[in-house]
Amino acid sequence: MFRKIVRIVTAISVALGMFMATSPALAHSEGDGNEVKGIIAAVDATASTVTITPQGGGMDVVLTVDAITLIKRNDKPATLADLQMGDKVEAKYNAVTLVASKIEAELDLSELEGVISALDSTAGTVTVTRQDSTTVTVTVNPTTLIKRNKKAATLADLQLGDKVEVKYNAMTLIASKIEAKLNLSELKGIITALDSAAGTVTVTRQDNTTVTVTVDASTLIKRNKKAATLADLQLGDKVEVKYNAVTLLASKIEAKLNLSELKGIITALDSAASTVTVTRKDGTTVTVTVDVNTLIKRNGKLATFADLQLGDKVEAKYNAVTLVASKIEAKLNLSELKGVISALDSAASIVTVTRKDGTTVTVTVDASALIKRNGKPATLADLQLGDKAEVKYNAVTLVASKIEAKH
Fold it and tell me: Which long-range CB contacts under 8 A does 349-355 form with residues at least 24 apart?
């Protein structure tokens, strides 16, 4: 009976040993309690290994994959070949043999937003500059989904300056999805430089900073609400520009004539240079140029540069950059003087009048001056010291236009 029991136990032991030898799944389960979570740093198909960088830090874990390792990727059955660098992974393995019993991986994409600052069609790369000025260069491959302005696109369709959102593998830097759209900056200011040869327009903003944009055949240009070309734009024009901040290529320019206004007194006239200097109330001066397009009026009538006079009261509209006047309206501007004639010089044709406050003004009398004394027409010679006088005169030239004196 004892021998029979021994034979039965032996038979069971042998059978169990054979089962253990032929059932690797059961053998695999012994000691497979270790877990690691992290990112796949490498996949070696030849060595059948997966290198995992633990999410909490520490040394990489290199696990071996065998025929019975259960592998899933994105919740679907997979093989070692399906695993990718950068995948987020959870693995169970034998701490002694480092053979993985289970690997669950999923695509782990990083997100990137910014502006395209470089494109390399040869290398198939796109460089994106974030808002903090840091850059990331991603690679585009045949599986990368690209859209631009919500339409299917290719790498060739992307443009420098495009605003972009990218999903990519942080380990391989391969982009899985790129969504780009035209990204235009806006610029407002005054045109302060034009270069037709270079095809450039320089705009000065209100804060005095400047931006020089390039104009090409695709640039839409309007001036005073009409279709225009670069040649139609003028220095001093008020302008609004939409442009690519990376390439500085203008997509749209809307300009309009921009005239400054000037009020004051004509204090200088230069017929050779065709310039008029106007002194404002605050004492500051502006010298404007008169050309064939300048509309000039004096005392409400059409006039020429030669008709303008020193001392005229004037209103001018002019280009603040070129200082060319588009319109000048002038009128005779006479000052009034009341007092007593305190000096007469017939040789020099001058009359000095002393006001009540003791101040004096000496005016010049020429052939055009209207003179009366005691209500009758008179000449400079008829005037006498001590006469009470009212004088109208040009405050700049000090030439009297009218003198009324009485004894």
Answer: 349/380, 351/380, 351/383, 351/389, 351/391, 351/400, 351/403, 353/389, 353/391
